[in-house]
Design brief:
Elements lengths: L9 E5 L14 H14 L4 E5 L4 H10 L7 E4 L4 E4 L4 E2 L1 H7 L5 H8 L6 E2 L10 E4 L2 H17 L4 E6 L3 E6 L4 H14 L6 E6 L14 E4 L5 H10 L6 E3 L4 H11 L23 H16 L7 H10 E8 L5 E3 H10 L9 E14 L2 E12 L2 E15 L4 E13 L12
Parallel strand pairs: 1-2, 1-10, 2-3, 10-11, 11-12, 13-18
Antiparallel strand pairs: 3-4, 4-5, 6-7, 7-9, 8-9, 13-14, 15-16, 16-17, 17-18
Bound molecules: alpha-D-glucopyranose and magnesium ion.
Alpha-D-glucopyranose (GLC) binds next to strand 9.
């Protein structure tokens, strides 16, 4: 269930809408700051878990609309569906477990007696989740009456109200908190409990995440009233839960710093002219390089020869760059091209980020790094599967990587289950 060999250093379990994703920020600045922090410092030894109310259908939609990273585990449909890895392999054990004292036909029969309940779209009706819309004024009364009638019909359910509008009915053992407890138990059995876990949320369906024992928690600054009320009633003395002063993903970064869980300075918050061009972590190296490309094209760094000279010094003179179109060229020609394109994206919506950075140390000073390089220009997004061969120079003054070889392939960035199998 996990691509790491041992225990994760940090496991982040985050809600998506209005927690990881700020729908009021069209430039996705906080999310991009989080992404570079994660790929530079955490991806190689930590776990990213998304826990969302969305069904698989509208989760995939969101991934197309927003620069979300690929998580290691996804908990969807308010903790009723768990999948692992890029292939989104479902946890069958969890499905089985949720069948206890659950019958969605009985739920729909009973809810039909409340005309105030409006069915949500078909995509959001799932095997272990029945969802409606209902206004705040009516919600409490309906929840009470429904709970009683479903108990009478022999079911054990959980009714959750979120965002002052959405009402979900789930099996009693489901929900984001129960799903996280289940995952933690599995890790424990494997002897791979994450060293630290932090949960992040903004609304009612996130509340039970904050009740899971021994986790840190952050309610983002823009949290809904129903979550803040739950916290005031149930957890206000827990020092491991904070209400951030920053919105969404910026609140998550703030919490990492607040609890001292690891690096919390996003490479996006660093002035590249001040930071060393060289580093000795492959993840950080990739994040920094592509951030530099973004800023160079947007003319947000100064056009100085010094930068170009430094770039030339880290690209191996005989190195090759295989362009996604299949054309092969010397690496230094790539730098020439970059030099000419200074400011091409000035004043435009243009972002570059990397996802799924993984690296293998082939020998004491050679690394093979693989990742998805994403580029967004206006509405258009494209992705290149990228492989870079790095060699570590053990300099007298500082250590740093030399880029030996770069190979890119166009990709839609989304790995699917229905790829042809040539085995
Ligand atoms: C998401 C789901 C919806 C659910 C809501 C609150 O928006 O799409 O079905 O009711 O989360 O949990
Ligand atoms: Mg939310």
């Amino acid at each position: 269930m996990n691509r790491l060999d041992g225990s994760a250093r940090l496991m982040i379990v985050s809600d998506l809408d209005y927690t990881m994703v700020d729908h009021d920020d069209p430039e996705n600045l906080a999310l991009l700051r989080f992404n570079s922090l994660w790929e530079a410092y955490y991806r190689h030894d930590s776990l990213l878990v998304f826990s969302t109310g969305r069904s698989p259908t509208i989760y995939k939609q969101l991934r197309k609309e927003k620069p979300l990273l690929t998580p290691d585990i996804i908990v969807m449909s308010v903790g009723t569906e768990i999948t692992y890895g890029e292939l989104m392999v479902p946890d069958e054990g969890w499905k089985q477990f949720l069948n206890q004292k659950w019958d969605r036909n009985i739920v729909t029969e009973e809810t039909a007696k409340f005309p105030e309940l409006t069915f949500q779209s078909e995509t959001e009706q799932r095997p272990h989740k029945v969802s409606f819309f209902v206004g705040k004024e009516k919600a409490l009364k309906i929840i009470k009456a429904l709970s009683e009638s479903l108990v009478k019909r022999g079911l054990e359910v959980k009714i959750i109200y979120s965002g002052g509008i959405a009402l979900d009915i789930l099996p009693r053992g489901a929900g984001k908190g129960c799903a996280l407890a289940y995952l933690l138990k599995k890790f424990e059995v494997d002897g791979r409990l994450p060293a630290n876990t932090i949960v992040c949320g903004d609304s009612g369906n996130d509340a039970e995440l904050f009740g899971v024992p021994e986790v840190y928690g952050v309610m983002v600054s823009n949290a809904q009233e129903e979550l803040l009320q739950w916290h005031a009633d149930n957890a206000k003395d827990n020092p491991n839960i904070i209400h951030a002063t920053e919105r969404c993903a910026a609140g998550i970064i703030q919490a990492i710093g607040n609890f001292g869980l690891g690096p919390n300075l996003s490479p996006r918050d660093v002035d590249l002219s001040e930071c060393k061009m060289n580093s000795s972590s492959p993840g950080y190296e990739m994040v920094k390089f592509y951030l530099f490309c973004e800023r160079w094209l947007r003319a947000e760094v100064e056009k100085s020869d010094q930068y170009m000279q430094r770039l030339r010094s880290v690209f191996y003179p005989l190195g090759i760059f295989v362009h996604p179109s299949g054309v092969e060229q010397p690496l230094h020609r790539f730098i020439d091209a970059m030099e000419r394109s200074y400011g091409d994206k000035q004043g435009k919506q243009y972002f570059v980020w990397v996802d799924r950075v993984s690296s293998a140390q082939i020998s004491p000073d050679i690394w093979l790094v693989k990742f998805d390089k994403w580029e967004q220009s206006g509405e258009e997004q494209r992705c290149c599967l990228t492989t870079v061969l790095l060699s570590l120079k053990q300099g007298e003054v500082q250590n740093g990587f030399t880029w030996m070889h770069v190979h890119q392939t166009w990709s839609d960035g989304l790995v699917t289950n229905d790829q042809t199998n040539f085995d």
